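User: Could you check the structure of this?
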Amino acid sequence: MTALDECHARGFLYKALGNCNDIKRDVNKCLSEERWARAKRNRDQAREKRKKVEQLWADERAFERGFPPASSSGAESSNTGATNAAAPAGEGEKR
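Assistant: Sure, the predicted structure tokens are below.
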């Protein structure tokens, strides 16, 4: 990048005639490689985070199906919501 800055500092005509193009191409290639590596790192981290979230959701679903909550009021409200939500969907499928 310093070489590109030095090339540009030589003046407009030097830059306009394309004397800095090779240096600029090298800088762009380097920056592109760094950007690609950073994006890959971010994608990998996002995939790992997504796997953890999916696992938490799966554990929560298994817990809800296999182990009802200890308080009866909490179980009734969650069952009522599930029953109400399922009823219209079932009726809609019959039509």
